[in-house]
Amino acid sequence: MATIRLEKISKSFPGVEALSGISQQIESGEFFTLLGPSGCGKTTLLRTVAGFYRQNEGHIYIDNKLIDNVPAYERNTGMVFQNYAVFPHMTVYENIAFGLKNRKVPSSEIKRKVAYVLEMARLSGYEDRTPDQLSGGQQQRVGLARAMVIEPEVLLMDEPLSNLDAKLRVEMREEIRDIQRELGITTIYVTHDQEEALVISDRIAVMESGVIHQVGTGWDIYKNPTDVFVSSFVGETNFMEGDILGEEVGRIKIMIGKQTIQANVPKSGNIKGHVKIAVRPEDISLVQKREEGAVANLNADSTVIEGKVEKNTFTGPLVRYLIDCGNNIHLVVETHKPEQASLIPVGTSVFIKIPISAILCFNPETGQRL
Ligand code: ADP
Ligand code: MG
Fold first, then answer.
1. Which atom of ligand 1 is nearest to the CA of 42?
2. Phi first, then psi: what are they for 47, rounded to 5°?
3. How far is residue 29's CA from residue 132's CA, in Å, rounded to a whole number?
4. What is the three-state SS of 92-110?
5. Angle between helices 107-120 and 92-102 (to 10 degrees)
6. How far is the CA of 13 from the centre of ligand 2 (A)?
7. Torsion from C-alpha of 250, 256, 261, 265, nearest 10 degrees
8. Rounded Cα–Cα distance for residues 105 and 73 (Å)
9. Atom of ligand 1 at shortest distance to CA of 45?
10. What pLDDT is attached to residue 293?
11. How far is the CA of 28 from the centre of ligand 2 (A)?
12. Strand intervals (E) in 51-180
């Protein structure tokens, strides 16, 4: 097992700085994911670690050994690609054995090792097929088996599931995770799919435009985003802007349109002027105005504004509401385990109840969490 250390890695292509000073330590046996929108530099960073690209600045260490000048084929890394990259004219067995043959491994050893990874990738019995006789998921398993059979210190996977259909992706991400855990191999995984990242990773680095915004567990980045970008890219968020009216007993009051919202005093203590607040759809609940004692149900841990149901959409496990709060403020609200009888019709006036702990405050100019 191996640690990976990236020290101030920068990489430019003509006209674009793909990576800007990335520093990151990845622990031995860790499943580490690079998450970000298309073009943010994920593939470039992965290929730089693999040695396919040479960084313009910075250093890469594997197990504290500087590998900047080690060519790709001598770096002990296995790579799995988005488009499978299996050899079409070779059988499954030959595809997987390829890397071992290149390394002049004795054939009895090759047999044993290939059998082992075939079993692990659930491909036993498919040895003699060619890739055109396999499904997409099976082809990607061949890609995975081929990367693993050389027993790399580091496994690098670039959107390995993005060519598969949705159901298979969900299955395969669990399989990849199980195999990685079993082998304990240090892994860098690339995806633009935030749910996939949350499910599969020990830690996630959220990237944009060649920089890392935040590194943390799925819980960290979802519940405790450091800035507006992370908050909006990971999961769905309602943003509202307003002016801070003042502070009292550990709370601030924020004017949003014509209504006021309470929030916890930001850690930074910077509580003046304009503020951007964020709240997740699933944290908000709705109370129909006609319900008796609706307001009395409120407690000191929540803040309430008013609005009108604009839209209600049943998706199975939940109902999504769009609520018009006036002044061009529209909130998405999700109600889980919905009952048909309690569906709130379009046009109904509602109280919108938000737990104060679910409200995050950001600097609207810099996007940084306050
Ligand atoms: P991602 O994998 O996150 O979608 P990439 O690492 O592929 O992003 O690309 C990052 C940026 O670098 C993009 O602006 C892309 O156009 C550019 N880029 C990537 N590879 C090359 C290349 N070989 N030549 C020129 N520009 C490149
Ligand atoms: Mg890419």
1. 3
2. -70, -25
3. 34
4. HHHHHHHHHHHCCCCHHHH
5. 130
6. 15
7. -20
8. 15
9. 6
10. 60
11. 24
12. 57-62, 65-66, 77-80, 154-158
Decide whether any atom of ligand 1 lies within 6 Å of the 44 Cβ: yes
pLDDT, one tens digit per residue, over 190-243 is 999 999 999 999 999 999 999 999 999 999 999 999 999 999 999 999 999 999
State residue 136's pLDDT score. 87
- Kindly give the pairing relationship between strand 154-158 and strand 186-191: parallel
Q: Among all chains, which residue has been given the structure tokens 């009895």?
A: 108
Whole-angstrom distance, CA of residue 311 vs CA of residue 352: 15
Summarised one tens digit per residue, pLDDT across range 117-129 is 998 888 899 999 9
Query: How would DSSP label each residue in 212-232?
Result: EEEEE-HHHHHHS-SBHHHHH
- Please give the backbone phi and psi of residue 183, each rounded to the nearest 5 degrees, phi first: -85, -20
Tokens of 331: 């909130």
Stated length of the chain: 370
- Pocket of ligand 1, candidates 44, 188, 209, 233: which has the most ligand atoms within 8 Å of its Cβ, to mutate? 44
As a whole number of Å, the CA-based R_g of the chain is 25
> Ion ligand 2 — residues with CB under 5 Å?
43
Nearest to 211 by CA among 4, 53, 40: 40
Domains (range + CATH), the chain: 4-233 (3.40.50.300), 238-362 (2.40.50.100)
For the record, the structure tokens of 292 come out as 């008796």
Three-state SS at 270: coil
